[in-house]
Amino acid sequence: KAGVTQTPRYLIKTRGQQVTLSCSPISGHRSVSWYQQTPGQGLQFLFEYFSETQRNKGNFPGRFSGRQFSNSRSEMNVSTLELGDSALYLCASSSGRHYEQYFGPGTRLTVT
Amino acid sequence: AQSVTQLDSQVPVFEEAPVELRCNYSSSVSVYLFWYVQYPNQGLQLLLKYLSGSTLVKGINGFEAEFNKSQTSFHLRKPSVHISDTAEYFCAVSAAGTSYDKVIFGPGTSLSVIP
Predict the structure, then answer these.
(1) What is the mean pLDDT of residues A13-28?
(2) Cα-based distances in Å from B67 to A10, B35, B54, B62
(3) B98 pLDDT exceeds 80?
(4) Which of A104, B42, B59, B112 could form a disulfide with B63 if both were Cys (CB 3.0 to 4.6 A apart)?
């Protein structure tokens, strides 16, 4: 099976812009979770989608949003970018069984 | 709610020496426990998991972990490390049961293997 893919791998944006990141889960996986990873805060949970519905949400401002399509692919959007949004954004897919997650390589976002 | 503590932020160890990475968790319900590894510029990869049954769990790359319910710990061990084990290691927990709960990750332990 192909693994989790994320596009793009690297992104540079300026403050105030918005960005959309994409994640394609492993075939057959219906759950997609998003995480933000920074040196200072570690791995923080953003949200999780299951069958096109947001099932869980972390403690991030409303500028961070996501959605999931009928083919389980997911997108994450960040509006009005701030310097502090610079991070590695990881996507993980799961079949839902025992919460075992499979991670993509991440998208490195740099906000200048 | 669950939480995870990894007391050691950095662990240096010589090649071929044994290593233990510590993980403690807090939860009011039964849990599932995981260890993930992250190599530089990559995503996380599952090393091993505890769901139920035997408290000693064996994973990939020669790693194993032991679930200790009384001490709420899930320490990761390897009897002899290699240079290629240099990476960031994350302990994670989620609530067991039929309803979904999010996975909570610890802050990570950076393992550096010294030649």
Answers:
(1) 97
(2) 38, 12, 8, 17
(3) no
(4) B59
Q: Which residues of B touch A (CB under 8 A)?
A: 32, 34, 36, 41-46, 49, 51, 90, 94, 100-108
Nearest CA to B73 out of B19, B36, B21, B13 is that of B21
| Confidence class for position B35, pLDDT limits 50, 70, 90 | very high
Name which of A32-36, A55-59, B4-8, B77-81 the model is least confident about: A55-59
Q: What is the largest CA-CA distance in chain A?
A: 40
Whether A10 and chain B come into contact, CB under 8 Å, resolves to no
Size of interface A-B (CB pairs under 8 A): 55
A32: left (phi over 0), alpha (psi -120 to 50) or beta: beta
Q: What is the pLDDT of residues B52-62, one digit of tens each?
A: 889 999 999 99
Q: What three-state secondary structure class fits B79?
A: coil
The residue among A111, A109, A91, A110 whose CA lies nearest residue A101 is A91
